[in-house]
Write a structure and sequence with these properties.
Elements: E1 6-14, H1 30-43, E2 47-51, H2 60-68, H3 75-83, E3 87-89, H4 99-107, E4 113-114, E5 118-120, E6 132-137, E7 140-148, E8 164-166, H5 169-184, E9 188-194, H6 206-211, H7 214-219, E10 226-228, E11 235-240, E12 243-248, E13 254-264, E14 269-280, H8 288-293, H9 295-305, E15 308-317, H10 323-326, H11 330-340, E16 348-352, E17 360-366, H12 367-374, E18 380-386, H13 387-398, E19 401-404, E20 407-410, E21 421-424, E22 428-430, E23 440-442, E24 450-456, H14 457-463, E25 473-474, H15 479-490, E26 500-502
Parallel strand pairs: 1-2, 2-3, 3-4, 7-9, 9-10, 10-12, 16-24, 22-26
Antiparallel strand pairs: 1-13, 5-8, 6-7, 11-12, 13-14, 15-17, 16-21, 18-24, 18-25, 19-20, 22-23
Helix pairs in contact: 2-9, 11-15, 12-15
C-alpha cells in the first residue's frame, strides 16, 4: 500500500427499478441508466454499482417475464449481468411471483443477492448464500451487507414459511455487522436496507413506522458508513452522525452517484471527502448494446400487450373510488367472475381492487388496458372459511367507512384501498350507524358452517391472523390473466349478479 496515495471510488446506487426496460412511457429506464454507468466507468475505473432490490416486479415488462413467459430468461437479470452490478439487496416484492421464480432469477445472476435476515426456516442461516460480500478496489476493502425490512416482509412470507423465515431487521443487523467487522475488517462498509426512513414516515402509522426504520438500524450497529434505503421511493441524501443515508428513487428514473475519496495510510485507510448527487437520467440515450441485447425481449412484450381483448366498446369504468365498495359495480363483478373461473364448483368470492389509482375499463380493450386496470400480481386461492370468519373480514372492511351528512366516507388511513373486500355469493348489509365490529349482517350464511371461498393470495396474507384455516389451493394464473379471458369470452358484457348494501 502506497502511503498517502489518494483513491476515488464512485458508488453508483439504484433501487426499486421495477423491471423498467425500454420505452415505458416514463422518463427513465435501465437502458438509459446503463449509458450513465458506462460514462462513469470511462472517467474512473473504480466504480461500485449496487442495487437495493425491487427490480423483478412492478411493471408490465416484469409481469410478462415472470408470469406469461417464465420459461424465458428474465431480461432484467440479463441486463444487470451485462452492466456488471456488484451486488443487489432483496425487496419484499421480489417474492410476488413465488419462491421458485426468485430462486431461478438469483441462480442466473452473476452478482450476489444480500439479505442477512431472510433465513432458512430449519437452519436459520441466510437463505440467499452469504449475507455480505467484500470487494477490493485498488487495495481498499469495501464490505457490502444486505437486510430486508422485517416489517415489510410480514405479509410476504406466509406462503413460504415452511422454507423461509424473516429475522427481525435490527437484531440481525447487530449480529451480522459485528461479525463482518470482526472477520473481514473492511475499510468502508455499505449497508443495503430495503426499507425506508422514519423521517419520511407518518409517526401515527405504527406499521409503516416500524417497517421503515433505517435510522434505528444504524443505532443498533456501529461502523456503517453508508446505508442505501428503498421502498419509499424518495430521493434522499441525509447524514446522521457518521452515517450517510441515501435513497435512489424508483422506476429507473434516478441513480445516486456518491464519490468517496480515500487516502491510504501505512496500515489503514482514511476517508478524505465525499460528495453525492442524484442524477436524473431521462436525457441520456438508451445504451445501444443493451437495445440490441433486449430487442426481441421488448418485441415479445409489445406483441403480447397490444393483443385485442374485445373489439367492441365496453363500459366498466367508475368515477369515484368509493363507487366500487359502497354499491354493486360491473367492474368488480368482472373481477369476481374472473376469479370464479380459477376453480370448479360453487364458491363465495372475496374480491378487491387491484389498482387504487385506476378507474376501471372503458372502450375497445387490449391486454395492456386490462393489466393497467388491475396491476397487482394476485392469484386466486381456494379456502374453507366459516360464516363467522367471513363476517370478521367484512367487518374489517367496514371499519374504514363512515357517514357524514348522509354521504359515505372512506378513510384509507384505517385500511389500504387494496384491502377493501367486496363479496359475491350471498347478500350482506353494512350498517354504518352501528358500532365498529357489529356493522355487518349476512343473509343465509350460518356463523358456524364452513363455506368454499375464493380470495386472492394477497388478501389471505393480510387476514391470515384473524382466520383459523391455513391450508389452501392456489391457481397458477393471476387475476389479470383470468380478467383477460373473462372479458374476451363475454365481449365485455358483464352482468351485475351480486348484492350488498352500505347504509
Amino acid at each position: 500500500m502506497k502511503t498517502n496515495e489518494l483513491v476515488t471510488i464512485d458508488l453508483l446506487a439504484t433501487s426499486d427499478l421495477h423491471g423498467q426496460i425500454g420505452k415505458s412511457g416514463i422518463s427513465g429506464n435501465i437502458l438509459k441508466m446503463a449509458t450513465y454507468v458506462k460514462h462513469k466507468r470511462k472517467a474512473n475505473h473504480h466504480v461500485l454499482l449496487l442495487d437495493n432490490g425491487g427490480m423483478l416486479s412492478g411493471s408490465m415488462f416484469a409481469f410478462y417475464y415472470a408470469q406469461i413467459a417464465p420459461y424465458k430468461r428474465n431480461p432484467m437479470i440479463k441486463i444487470m449481468n451485462d452492466m456488471q452490478f456488484d451486488a443487489s439487496g432483496v425487496s419484499p416484492d421480489e417474492f410476488n411471483f413465488g419462491l421458485d421464480f426468485l430462486n431461478k432469477s438469483i441462480a442466473l445472476s452473476r452478482f450476489p443477492w444480500l439479505a442477512a435476515n431472510i433465513e432458512h426456516s430449519k437452519t436459520r442461516e441466510p437463505y440467499f448464500t452469504t449475507p455480505y460480500t467484500v470487494k477490493y478496489i485498488d487495495g481498499i476493502k469495501i464490505g457490502i451487507i444486505g437486510f430486508t425490512s422485517s416489517g415489510l416482509m410480514e405479509n410476504k412470507n406466509v406462503e413460504f414459511e415452511d422454507e423461509v423465515v424473516v429475522g427481525e431487521s435490527m437484531t440481525s443487523a447487530k449480529r451480522w455487522v459485528r461479525y463482518l467487522h470482526e472477520k473481514e475488517s473492511p475499510d468502508f462498509l455499505i449497508m443495503l436496507y430495503h426499507g425506508g426512513l422514519n423521517t419520511y414516515t407518518d409517526k401515527n402509522n405504527y406499521r409503516s413506522y416500524y417497517s421503515n426504520n433505517a435510522e434505528n438500524m444504524i443505532k443498533s450497529t456501529e461502523g456503517v458508513n453508508v446505508i442505501i434505503t428503498g421502498h419509499q421511493e424518495h430521493n434522499v441524501d441525509l447524514k446522521v452522525a457518521e452515517t450517510q443515508f441515501i435513497q435512489p428513487g424508483k422506476d429507473a428514473t434516478n441513480i445516486v452517484d456518491m464519490s468517496i475519496q480515500f487516502r491510504k495510510r501505512t496500515n489503514s485507510v482514511e476517508i478524505v471527502d465525499t460528495s453525492i448527487k442524484h442524477v436524473e437520467i431521462s436525457s441520456y440515450p438508451e445504451d445501444r448494446d443493451l437495445l440490441e441485447l433486449t430487442h426481441f425481449d421488448q418485441k415479445a412484450v409489445q406483441h403480447w400487450s397490444e393483443q385485442c381483448v374485445v373489439d367492441s366498446p365496453v363500459v366498466l369504468n367508475y368515477k369515484e373510488f368509493t363507487d366500487i365498495f359502497t354499491k354493486p359495480h360491473r367492474f368488480m363483478a368482472c373481477i369476481q367472475n374472473s376469479m370464479a373461473h380459477a376453480f370448479s364448483g360453487e364458491s363465495f368470492v372475496c374480491a378487491h381492487i387491484g389498482n387504487p389509482t385506476g378507474q376501471g375499463l372503458r372502450g375497445v380493450l387490449h391486454v395492456k388496458d386490462v393489466y393497467n386496470a388491475y396491476v397487482h400480481t394476485d392469484k386466486p386461492i381456494h379456502i374453507k372459511l366459516s360464516g363467522k370468519e367471513i363476517k370478521r373480514i367484512i367487518e374489517r372492511t367496514a371499519t374504514a367507512l363512515s357517514k357524514e351528512n348522509e354521504s359515505i366516507i372512506y378513510n384509507e388511513d384505517i385500511l389500504e384501498p387494496t384491502l377493501m373486500t367486496i363479496w359475491k355469493g350471498f347478500k350482506y348489509t353494512i350498517d354504518l350507524n352501528k358500532p365498529v365490529g357489529n356493522r355487518v349482517q349476512l343473509e343465509q350464511v350460518e356463523m358456524d358452517q364452513k363455506y368454499d371461498v375464493i380470495m386472492t393470495d394477497y388478501i389471505f396474507r393480510h387476514v391470515n391472523k384473524i382466520i383459523e384455516e391455513s391450508t389452501y389451493e392456489m391457481s397458477k394464473k393471476t387475476v389479470i390473466e383470468y380478467m383477460i379471458d373473462e372479458i374476451g369470452e363475454k365481449k365485455g358484457k358483464i352482468d351485475l349478479d351480486y348484492e350488498f348494501e352500505v347504509k
